[in-house]
């Protein structure tokens, strides 16, 4: 293919991009760089493919690589797409290794927003994979690959593919038959999205990714900064308690990796996914009750203030005024644990006893 060739007497073909399936071109009518790609489909699918490609030209979103034009040159259909300067997620991981959780979550936020906009417009992508997610120099992720036949896939297939893409981002490999273990919220979310029963509600996926993009799990905070002061731990406990009260039912996932801390130090308990609770944070009675959630909360706060989860005979050396609260929460007898109202008062008292958070 000659470098001086033009499509539609307008798009001057230049060098290949990436592996060569996509070419850089210059739009002489609009004086801008574009990307072009031949739309290769079996003859029997050509009309359906052209219909889907033309429908994709109406899709507008900051996280979507736009399809600008669909044309036929010498009987061959071509897609003309917005040119985005960036590296694919696949290239980034293969060259530099898996992404940090926050960066992967930020990419997930962008891709999910793109898919939500597309699904709202009746467009299923059908090709979500690490090669079609572009990471820009500003940290934004954009989803390429629109305009190709989706083979009548459902929107849920795009969510499964997003989960597989995020798995690749943090693990450096596709999920295969055994997705990566790990109790952190992102890996828990990925496993839930890959589950044969179908993904969690989109709102849960969005909230989890939004939080992970900017917040850090409590266990990561403790791992980086060491045990936290009792009054601060009491404030975290109060925030988690509020979430449990608002939920009104057994949560089943109270543990440090599922409590996210924002930049202002505020805590938020994430919704339960299919990952379950780690043994160290599971109440000894193994019951699906709110009293069991309170035991898990006690174990979580123990970890935050002492730096390690509770174990038989483990001393409370840093808990100060929080110590008697933790001992009640961690009682082996659910009847000896405080009620939620009692716990609220006790946590507020610990906070009031040290207004400086020490």
Automatic annotation (TrEMBL):
SUPFAM superfamilies documented for this protein: Protein kinase-like (PK-like)
GO molecular function: ATP binding; protein serine/threonine kinase activity
Domain Protein kinase: 11-358
Key word GTP-binding present: no
Keyword terms: ATP-binding, Kinase, Nucleotide-binding, Serine/threonine-protein kinase, Transferase
Enzyme class at the top of the EC tree: transferase
PROSITE patterns (UniProt xref): PROTEIN_KINASE_DOM
Enzyme Commission code: 2.7.11.1
Pfam families on file: Pkinase
Cross-referenced PANTHER family: MITOGEN-ACTIVATED PROTEIN KINASE KINASE KINASE 20-RELATED, SERINE_THREONINE-PROTEIN KINASE NEKL-3
Record protein name field: non-specific serine/threonine protein kinase
Organism: Nonomuraea gerenzanensis
């Amino acid at each position: 293919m000659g470098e001086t060739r033009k499509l539609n007497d307008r798009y001057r073909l230049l060098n290949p991009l990436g592996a060569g399936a996509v070419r850089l071109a210059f739009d002489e009518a609009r004086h801008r760089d574009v990307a072009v790609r031949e739309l290769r489909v079996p003859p029997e699918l050509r009309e359906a493919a052209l219909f889907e490609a033309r429908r994709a030209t109406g899709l507008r979103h900051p996280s979507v690589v736009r399809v600008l034009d669909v044309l036929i040159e010498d009987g061959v259909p071509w897609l003309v797409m917005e040119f985005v300067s960036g590296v694919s997620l696949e290239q980034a991981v293969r060259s530099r290794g898996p992404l940090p959780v926050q960066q992967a979550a930020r990419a997930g936020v962008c891709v999910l927003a793109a898919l939500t906009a597309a699904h709202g417009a009746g467009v299923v992508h059908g090709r979500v994979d690490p090669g079609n997610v572009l990471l820009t120099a500003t940290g934004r992720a954009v989803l390429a690959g629109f305009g190709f036949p989706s083979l009548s896939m459902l929107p849920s297939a795009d969510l499964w593919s997003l989960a597989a893409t995020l798995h690749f981002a943090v693990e450096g490999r596709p999920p295969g038959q055994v997705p990566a273990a790990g109790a952190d919220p992102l890996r828990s979310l990925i496993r839930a999205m890959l589950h044969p029963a179908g993904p969690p509600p989109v709102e849960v996926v969005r909230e989890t990714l939004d939080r992970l993009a900017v917040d850090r799990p409590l266990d990561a905070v403790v791992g980086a900064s060491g045990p936290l002061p009792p009054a601060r731990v009491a404030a975290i406990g109060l925030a988690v308690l509020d979430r449990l009260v608002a939920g009104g039912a057994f949560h089943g996932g109270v543990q440090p990796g599922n409590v996210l801390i924002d930049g202002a130090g505020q805590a938020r308990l994430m919704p339960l996914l299919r990952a379950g609770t780690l043994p160290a944070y599971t109440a000894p009675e193994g019951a699906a009750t709110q009293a069991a959630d309170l035991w898990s909360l006690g174990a979580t706060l123990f970890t935050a203030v002492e730096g390690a989860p509770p174990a038989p005979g483990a001393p409370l050396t840093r808990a100060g005024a929080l110590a008697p609260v933790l001992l009640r929460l961690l009682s082996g007898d659910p009847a000896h644990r405080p009620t939620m109202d009692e716990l609220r008062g006790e946590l507020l008292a610990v906070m009031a006893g040290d207004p400086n958070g020490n």
